[in-house]
């Protein structure tokens, strides 16, 4: 049975952009599971699976509904133990929690602010109103003022990637010789920017960019099916 993945989109249903939904998509592909993306706009999220969650991703696997990207990964690992592991054991699950916190606290604040106006521009009119109101409440300022430090903060952002950059000198993926769920956590953050903005958040010769390109090639180029902005 095909798994349904409720996937956040803007006015173009073929351009899913949520970093968390991309984590789930890559986890499903890693497990070799058939899934169908269900394009879902911000204002449609409360209606997903009878209000199963305030946010997406949400998946439906037969009679099972699971919300939250990490919970989805844990579910897939337990429900399909005969398929390639996402974590490599209990220790891997614990370490993936660290990677998730690092991504949320180091990558997301800069990247999310940097492309905020581009994300807004990709919504239809009704969702633009929702997005502006919700994000201005979150940031405590006008939407247009949020990305003001994008260019001046780029060097510091790239410097913050040095632990990842250094690790990639030893191995091609965060998971080692092959990717694991922590790779998809970080991939989701970078894919979020790639599909919404032409902003060059990584230098072409950065080893992190090389890793990102390898991730884009995974699973018959799943990440590349959405063209870069």
From TrEMBL:
Domain of life, source organism: Bacteria
Domain called GST N-terminal: residue spans: 8-84
An individual GO BP term: glutathione metabolic process
Coiled coil regions in record: none
Record-linked Pfam families: GST_C_7, GST_N_3
Keyword terms of this UniProt record: Transferase
One Gene Ontology molecular-function label: glutathione transferase activity
Record-given protein name: Glutathione S-transferase family protein
Native species: Borborobacter arsenicus
Origin organism lineage: Bacteria, Pseudomonadati, Pseudomonadota, Alphaproteobacteria, Hyphomicrobiales
């Amino acid at each position: 049975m095909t798994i349904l993945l409720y996937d956040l989109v803007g006015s173009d249903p073929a351009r899913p952009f949520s970093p968390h939904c991309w984590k789930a998509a890559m986890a499903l592909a890693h497990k070799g599971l058939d899934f169908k993306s269900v394009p879902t706009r911000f204002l449609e999220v409360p209606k997903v699976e009878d209000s199963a969650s305030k946010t997406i991703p949400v998946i439906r696997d037969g009679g099972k509904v699971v919300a939250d990207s990490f919970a989805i990964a844990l579910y897939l690992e337990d429900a399909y133990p005969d398929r390639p592991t996402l974590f490599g054991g209990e220790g891997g699950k614990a370490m993936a929690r660290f990677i998730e916190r690092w991504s949320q606290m180091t990558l997301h604040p800069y990247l999310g602010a940097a492309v905020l106006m581009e994300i807004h521009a990709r919504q239809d009119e009704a969702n633009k109103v929702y997005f502006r109101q919700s994000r201005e409440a979150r940031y405590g300022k006008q939407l247009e003022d949020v990305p003001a430090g994008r260019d001046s903060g780029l060097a510091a952002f790239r410097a913050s990637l040095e632990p990842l950059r250094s690790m990639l000198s030893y191995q091609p993926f965060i998971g080692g010789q092959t990717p694991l769920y922590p790779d998809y956590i970080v991939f989701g953050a970078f894919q979020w920017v790639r599909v919404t903005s032409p902003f060059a958040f990584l230098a072409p010769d950065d080893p992190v960019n090389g890793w990102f390109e390898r991730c884009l090639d995974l699973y018959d180029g799943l990440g590349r099916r959405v063209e870069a902005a």
